[in-house]
Amino acid sequence: MKFQRAALSAHHLWSSPFVRWQGRLADVSSLDVAVAVTRDALAARRIDPARIDQLVLGTTIPQPRSFYAVPWIAARLDMPGVTGPHVAQACATSVACIVAAAAQVEAAASSCALVVTADRTSNGPLLVYPRSRAMGGSALTENWVLDNFASDPGTDHSMVHTAEAVAREGDMSRQALDELTLLRHQQYRSALADERRVQRAYLQPVLIEQKRSRLEIDRDEGVHETSADGLRALKPAHEGGVVTSGSQTHPADGAAGALVLDHDAARTEAGADGVVRLLSAGFARAEKARMPKAATTAAQRALDAAGVGIADVHVVTTHNPFAVNDLWFAQQTGFALERMNPYGCSLVYGHPQGPTGLRAIAELVQALRARGGGIGLFTGCAAGDTGAALLVRMA
After folding, report:
1. Range(s) of the domain holding residue 331
2. How far apart are CA 149 and CA 159, in angstroms?
3. 124-140 burial, b for 16+ CB within 10 Å, e for fewer?
4. Domain contains 69
5. CATH number of the domain that residue 294 is part of
6. Is 94 inside a domain boundary?
């Protein structure tokens, strides 16, 4: 999938801090977080909501009243005449939302599309499905988060199983995964230097007025203290395996957003920040129960669509729920692990699913900006052995 007109401004990408599972956002609807973060992000960037003519919403976990999610959010953001699609594709949701918005720009059906992504993995809903023909009309129940994290209905395997399977095929050692995990934590800590100068460029605090207090969150909550000795002391998630709780991510809550514009409009908006041209996107599936491979396949599809080789790429960011993902990518492409995820990644700060990719895209753009431009690639895996990738160029 190749783009001709769609673009971003480096200044028009944002993400809330990510908050650990069952943390301070556990009892706040992700739609409320999305509204608060988006409202403040638009105001901080002096973006008039009246300019926005399309809203693309990405969530994966139902919240109260989410049946009305898009028009409800638009109305709360003072955009009463705006609507658009509601997208859900697990951790591929961010790329799917960007593609949906870019398609509108490419078709000249939108001049300024707002992408809003949010999820709360905490306190996931218990769904009750009526079954009139069951004995006594007994209902089928599903814990939306826990049941689906535990098993892929297409394979009956857990996500950890997919990581172990790919680790075996890639002949990955426990030591290699631990060393890579430690590197990703060190990269994340580099983004905290100079009073979090890098993160302040894209992190939008959560500010929500509550009945008796004001909820304020301006930094990630849930990043674990990590050391080589600490990683070595952890037991494998599966007996005889190489993946531990240290080399896999943790669920989280948060929101992220972006404006997708026509290239000429983005160039005017960007100013000194630089315009980010969307080159291509790629979606893919790996073979059954091999989820970490899908990110590499999706990346190759995005590269092929744009006619770009991996040697032309300057920075890569990933959604890597397992260190296995990045190691497989490096094995298959030859891209250096040290050049990936310069400011950390979801392996470190967690993943709220819907907004995870968009935060990584914001970090990708900041890394390109720091080096004066170039080509950047985001790629990540998602439930169902799926992957999604986005290729961009910053002038």
Report:
1. 6-124+190-221+247-394
2. 7
3. beeeeeeeeeeeeeeee
4. yes
5. 3.40.47.10
6. yes
* pLDDT tier, 298 (very low <50, low <70, confident <90, very high otherwise): very high
Q: Considering the domain boundaries, does residue 162 fall inside one?
A: no
pLDDT range class, residue 271, cuts 50, 70, 90: low
Give pLDDT tens digits for 317-372.
Answer: 999 999 999 999 999 999 999 999 999 999 999 999 999 999 999 999 999 999 99
Tokens of 157: 């395997």
If one counts the domains in the chain, the total is: 1
Q: Which two tokens stand for residue 342?
A: 């310069």
Q: Mapped to the 3 state alphabet, what secondary structure does the chain carry? A: CECCCEEEEHHHEEECCCEECCCCCCCCCHHHHHHHHHHHHHHHCCCCHHHCCEEEEECCCCCCCHHHHHHHHHHHCCCCCCCCCEECECECHHHHHHHHHHHHHHCCCCCEEEEEEEEECCCCCEEEECCCCCHHHCCEEEECCHHHHHCCCCCCCCHHHHHHHHHHHCCCCHHHHHHHHHHHHHHHHHCCHHHHHHHHCCECCEEEECCCCEEEECCCECCCCCCHHHHHCCCECCCCCCCECCCECCEEEEEEEEEEEEHHHHHHHHHHHCEEEEEEEEEEECCCCCHHHHHHHHHHHHHHHHCCCHHHCCEEEEECCEHHHHHHHHHHHCCCHHHECECECHHHHCECCCCHHHHHHHHHHHHHHHCCCEEEEEEEEECCCEEEEEEEEEC
Is 176 domain-assigned? no
Confidence (pLDDT) at 266: 81
| Beta-carbon-side half-sphere exposure of residue 173 (alpha carbons within 13 Å) | 4
- List pLDDT tens digits, range 48-88: 999 999 999 999 999 999 999 999 999 999 999 999 999 99
- Is the per-residue pLDDT at 22 higher than 80? yes
